[in-house]
Design goal:
It is found in: Membrane. Keywords: Membrane, Transmembrane, Transmembrane helix. The chain is mostly helical. The protein has one domain. It is globular and about 50 Å long. The C terminus is likely disordered.
C-alpha cells in the first residue's frame, strides 16, 4: 500500500512531467513554424511518422504496446476518425503558425463549448444548467479575447483567417472526441492500436497534400538559402515528435494518477506559464483584453471540471476502457480529451 507521502510525490512528478512536455511541445512547435512558415504540412507529416516509429520501437521495450494487424475492413471503419483527426491537426498547426503563442489558447478557446454541443447532438442528451453556464463563461472569455482592442497594434492583431483556423480546429477536436468512443471497438478497445491506425492513416491522408503544396521542394529551396537555419527545423521535428509521443503518455498518466480536478488545475498553471513564457521568449503582446480572456476561459473550464466531477461522483461507478488514445498530439488536444473524460457520454487527451 502506497503511503500518503509517496503518493503525493508520485502525483507531483506526473504533473511536472505533463506540464514540461506540454510547454516544450507548444514552444518548439511555434519556433519551428516561425522558422519554416511555408512548410507546416510537411512538419506535421514528419511528426506523425516519428510517432509511428516510436510506437514500433515501444513494442521492443514493453509488451503492453501492440501494433494491430493491417486489415482492409478495419481501415474502412476507421476512416471517419482518421479523417477528422488529421483535419483538426492541420487547422491546429495553421492556427499556431499564424497567431502568437499567448493568443493560441484564446484562438482555440471554443473547444469546450463545441465539445459539449457535439456531445449533446450525438447523445440526444441536454446538458445540465451548470454545464451550460460553464460553456457560456468560456464563450464569453473567447469573445473578450478576439474582440478588437485599441491597445493592440495592427501588426499584432490576429487575422480573421487565423481565428477561423482556431474555430475549425476546436470543432474537429470536439467531433474527434465522439468518434474515438465509436472507433475503439474496431481496435479491440485498445487505445494504442487506435493510435497506430490514427497516425498511419493521418500520414497517408496528409502526404498527397504535402506533395501538391510542393512543400518538399520548398524545403529544398530553403536549404539553399544561406540565411535559413535548418538546424531549427531539424531539431524541432525531432523534439516535437518525441515530446508529442511523451505528452500522450503524460496525459494518460495524469488521468490515472491524479484526480480530474488536480489535472485541470495543473493545466491551468501550465496555461499561465505558457502565457508568461510566450511574452519572455517570443515577445508576445499581453494586454488587458487577452489577460482577461485567458482568465475567464480558465475559470469556465475549471468550473466545468468541478461540475462534471460532482455529477459523476453522484452516479454509480462504471467500467471503462483507457481514457486517452496514445497518438501524436499537441498539448491542447491532450488537455481537451482529458476534459472530455469528465463527460459521462464521452471518451473514457491528446
Amino acid at each position: 500500500m502506497i503511503t500518503p507521502n509517496v503518493q503525493t510525490i508520485k502525483v507531483a512528478v506526473v504533473v511536472m512531467f505533463y506540464m514540461t512536455a506540454a510547454l516544450v511541445m507548444v514552444f518548439v512547435n511555434k519556433a519551428v513554424l516561425n522558422n519554416a512558415p511555408k512548410i507546416p504540412l510537411l512538419f506535421l507529416l514528419i511528426q506523425l511518422i516519428i510517432a509511428v516509429v516510436l510506437l514500433h520501437v515501444s513494442t521492443l521495450i514493453t509488451k503492453r504496446v501492440e501494433i494491430p494487424k493491417v486489415e482492409k475492413a478495419t481501415a474502412k471503419k476507421l476512416v471517419p476518425v482518421i479523417f477528422v483527426n488529421i483535419v483538426g491537426l492541420v487547422f491546429n498547426t495553421l492556427c499556431l503558425r499564424d497567431v502568437e503563442a499567448t493568443f493560441f489558447q484564446i484562438a482555440r478557446g471554443m473547444v469546450l463549448p463545441l465539445t459539449i454541443i457535439v456531445s449533446a447532438i450525438h447523445t440526444h442528451d441536454i446538458p445540465s444548467k451548470r454545464v451550460l453556464i460553464a460553456a457560456s463563461v468560456v464563450t464569453i472569455g473567447f469573445i473578450v479575447g478576439v474582440s478588437p482592442s485599441p491597445t493592440v497594434p495592427a501588426n499584432a492583431t490576429p487575422s480573421l483567417l487565423s481565428l477561423i483556423y482556431g474555430l475549425l480546429s476546436s470543432l474537429f477536436i470536439a467531433i474527434h472526441a465522439v468518434l474515438i468512443k465509436m472507433s475503439l471497438p474496431y481496435c479491440n478497445n485498445s487505445t494504442i492500436q487506435l493510435a497506430w491506425w490514427t497516425n498511419v492513416g493521418s500520414a497517408i491522408f496528409l502526404l498527397p497534400f504535402v506533395i501538391l503544396h510542393k512543400e518538399p521542394f520548398l524545403l529544398l529551396e530553403m536549404t539553399r538559402n544561406a540565411d535559413w537555419d535548418g538546424h531549427v527545423f531539424l531539431w524541432g521535428c525531432l523534439v516535437t515528435g518525441f515530446f508529442g509521443f511523451l505528452l500522450c503518455i503524460a496525459g494518460l498518466l495524469s488521468i490515472k494518477v491524479t484526480s480530474p480536478i488536480t489535472h485541470m488545475f495543473s493545466s491551468a498553471a501550465r496555461s499561465v506559464l505558457q502565457t508568461v513564457l510566450g511574452v519572455l521568449i517570443f515577445g508576445d503582446l499581453l494586454n488587458v483584453n487577452r489577460s482577461m480572456s485567458i482568465f475567464v476561459i480558465l475559470l469556465g473550464t475549471m468550473y466545468y471540471t468541478w461540475v462534471k466531477s460532482s455529477e459523476t461522483a453522484s452516479k454509480p461507478p462504471r467500467v471503462d476502457v483507457e481514457s486517452v488514445p496514445l497518438t501524436s498530439k499537441n498539448e491542447n488536444e491532450v488537455e481537451d480529451e482529458v476534459t472530455d473524460w469528465q463527460e459521462p457520454k464521452e471518451e473514457g487527451k491528446h
